[in-house]
Amino acid sequence: MHDLKILIIDDDEDDYFITSQYLEEITEFNITCNWCFKIEEALVKLAQNNYDAYFIDYRLGAETGLEVLKEAISKGCVKPVILLTGKGNAQIDRLAVENGAYDYLIKGELNAEILERSLRYALERFKSFKLINDNEKKYRLLFENAISFIFTCDSALNFTECNPACTYLLGYKPEELKNKSLLDFISAKDQPIIKELVNEKKNIQNLSVELVSKPLGTMLANLSIAYFDIPNQQSYWQGIILDETIRTQAEQAKLQKEKLEATYRLVRTLAHEIRNPLANISLSLDGIEEKKIESQNLFIDIIKRSSARINSIITELLQSSKAIELKLESVDIVEVVKDVIEIADDRIKLKNIAVEVFFPTHPIIKNVDVEKISISILNLILNAVEAMEADTGKLYVGVKQTLDCTQILIKDTGSGISEENLKKLFEPYFTTKKNGMGLGLVSTLNIIKSHKADIKVESKENAGTTFIISFPNL
Question: Is 2-139 assigned to CATH 3.40.50.2300?
Answer without folding.
Answer: yes
